[in-house]
Structure formats: structure tokens, C-alpha cells
């Protein structure tokens, strides 16, 4: 592990549900992941989502679940130090990998990332589930850096999954019918919430609980891409919980574990931390 979290960072994660980690990942990894971004933009995978393909501005792009096919992403999850940071933040003896997520908003992309909570979209339950969102380009709150509702991971709420692009998006039909209450309209009632956000330099990261409400605005920059790679991690108390409204990319047919069991399936959810 090339970096550890200091007491202030750990306190922020535990109390706020999110901590900003300056210089979390080396410049070499940032350069390598930016190369991956360029490659995926040119040739998205079957899991890619691309608004305005090929455009240099106003393009909202994501791709995911590439770690088994892309050697650079596979190396990043095993060697960058993310796994150790995730285990430390979660207070877990182990860190298992769930999936990778590339996120790009080209200059002038108005599309926001709506406010949401991750865990209802994923087939897991447990308090030890987190993400590490690594900035690959300079990212300010105005240019779509992440924002969070401070402490929302502790409020006991479970919000139903909703399509980011509205109820008419056929590609998001799997989100329909999930349990939970409707997520509050944070975007239009910001003054009612304790919202925190961080301006990021390449190599900075935010680590946050899957229970923390978060979102991001559009990229208002006229000339700077907002690019990031987010990795998703499972700790000791995470259990496999397939349910209506969960991401169908990995389902019961793909795994050996049964509902309610820890995800001890090294082929699908490899243990990255500790190394032995």
C-alpha cells in the first residue's frame, strides 16, 4: 500500500460518510488511466453509455466492468493502493473488488449526475461497502466534481433506485420496482441539506460509503474534460443481496454464493486486500 489514511481522513469518512484524500494515487497511475479513458471513448465496451458519441464537447460518457478484459484496469485495482485504502476506511480486515467505473463529462456537458445512494443499485447489503473516485483531470464543483450530503450514511435511509435519465430510458428498465423510499429532491432544495464538495487535482480521490447521498452537476468548463475512475469495494460484513432494482451485470447465475452469504467468490469478487 503506497498511502494510508490519517486520523483526520478516517474521522471524516466515519462521521461525514466521505473523505477527500489528496495525492491518493501516483501520477503514473493517473496517466495510465487517462490513456484507458481515451481508448474507451474511442471504442466503448458493451457496458458503455454514451451521450453524443464522438463529440469533443457536451458528451456524457461512462463505461464499467472492464477489469477482467482490460489489463491496465486490472493492474490498477491490484497495484494502485486503492484496496488498502478501502479496507482501512471501512475498518475491514479484507477488501474485495466489485467493479470499475469510468466517468467522463467533456467540456460544456450540461447533464448532471442526479443525487442518489449507491447501495440500492447494487446486489449487496452491509455497512462496509465503499467507492474510491479518483480524479484524472482537474475537477471543481463547478466542473462536475462530486458533492455529498454530510452524514447521510448514518440516517438509516434506503432510497429506491431511479433512472438517471428519466423513467422513459429503456436501458434503465432494470431499476424499476426496487424497494425503498423516493430520494429527496436535493438539487432543488439544497439549503435544506448539509452539502459538502471538493475541488480535485489529478491524483486526488474521494472515498465514500455506498450509503452516502451524492451527486454532481454538469461540467461548466469550456475547455477541460472531467474524467475519473471509480472503484467499488466490499468489506467483511458485505453480503450478497440480489433484488429487484439491482444492477443486472452480475446476477445469481454468475456467482457461487447464495443470498445472505459473504461474497467469497474469488472469480467474480476477488480479494485484493490483504495481498496474501
Which descriptors would you attach to this protein?
single chain; 276 residues; Jelly Rolls; eight-stranded antiparallel beta sheet; four-stranded antiparallel beta sheet; 14 strands; 16% helix
Topology of this structure?
Elements: H1 7-16, E1 18-21, H2 27-42, E2 49-51, E3 60-64, H3 71-79, H4 82-90, E4 95-105, E5 113-116, E6 124-125, E7 129-135, E8 147-149, E9 195-197, E10 205-209, E11 214-216, E12 226-234, E13 239-240, E14 271-273
Antiparallel strand pairs: 1-10, 2-3, 3-4, 4-12, 4-14, 5-11, 6-13, 7-10, 7-12, 8-9, 8-11
Average pLDDT: 94
Helix content: 10-25%
Question: What's the overall geometry?
Answer: globular
Count of distinct structural domains: 1
- Name the CATH superfamily assignment: q2cbj1_9rhob like domain
CATH architecture heading: Sandwich
Would you kindly provide a written description of the structure presented here, covering whatever features stand out?
By secondary structure, the protein is α+β, with helices and mostly antiparallel strands. The protein has one domain (7-263): Sandwich (Jelly Rolls), CATH 2.60.120. The protein has four helices and 14 strands. Strands 1, 2, 3, 4, 7, 10, 12 and 14 form an eight-stranded antiparallel beta sheet that branches. It has a four-stranded antiparallel beta sheet with strand order 5-11-8-9, with no helix packed on it. A hairpin with an 8-residue loop joins β2 (49-51) and β3.
Amino acid at each position: 500500500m503506497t498511502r494510508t489514511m490519517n486520523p483526520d481522513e478516517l474521522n471524516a469518512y466515519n462521521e461525514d460518510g466521505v473523505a477527500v484524500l489528496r495525492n491518493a494515487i501516483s501520477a503514473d497511475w493517473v496517466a495510465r488511466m487517462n490513456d484507458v479513458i481515451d481508448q474507451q471513448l474511442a471504442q466503448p465496451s458493451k457496458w458503455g453509455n454514451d451521450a453524443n458519441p464522438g463529440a469533443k464537447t457536451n458528451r456524457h460518457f461512462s463505461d464499467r466492468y472492464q477489469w477482467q478484459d482490460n489489463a491496465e484496469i486490472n493492474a490498477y485495482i491490484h497495484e494502485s493502493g486503492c484496496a488498502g485504502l478501502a479496507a482501512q476506511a471501512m475498518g475491514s480486515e479484507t477488501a474485495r473488488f466489485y467493479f470499475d467505473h469510468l466517468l467522463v463529462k467533456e467540456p460544456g456537458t450540461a447533464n448532471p449526475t442526479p443525487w442518489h445512494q449507491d447501495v440500492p443499485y447494487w446486489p449487496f447489503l452491509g455497512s462496509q461497502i465503499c467507492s474510491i473516485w479518483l480524479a484524472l483531470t482537474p475537477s471543481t464543483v463547478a466542473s462536475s466534481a462530486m458533492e455529498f450530503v454530510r452524514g447521510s450514511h448514518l440516517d438509516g435511509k434506503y432510497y429506491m433506485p431511479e433512472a438517471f435519465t428519466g423513467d422513459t430510458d429503456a436501458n434503465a428498465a432494470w431499476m424499476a420496482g426496487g424497494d425503498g423510499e423516493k430520494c429527496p429532491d436535493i438539487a432543488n432544495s439544497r439549503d435544506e441539506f448539509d452539502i459538502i464538495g471538493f475541488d480535485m487535482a489529478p491524483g486526488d480521490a474521494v472515498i465514500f460509503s455506498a450509503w452516502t447521498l451524492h451527486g454532481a452537476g454538469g461540467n461548466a468548463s469550456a475547455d477541460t474534460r472531467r474524467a475519473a475512475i471509480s472503484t467499488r469495494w466490499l468489506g467483511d460484513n458485505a453480503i450478497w443481496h440480489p433484488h429487484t432494482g439491482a444492477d443486472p451485470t452480475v446476477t445469481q447465475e454468475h456467482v457461487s454464493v447464495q443470498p445472505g452469504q459473504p461474497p467469497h467468490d474469488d472469480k467474480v469478487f476477488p480479494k485484493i486486500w490483504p495481498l496474501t
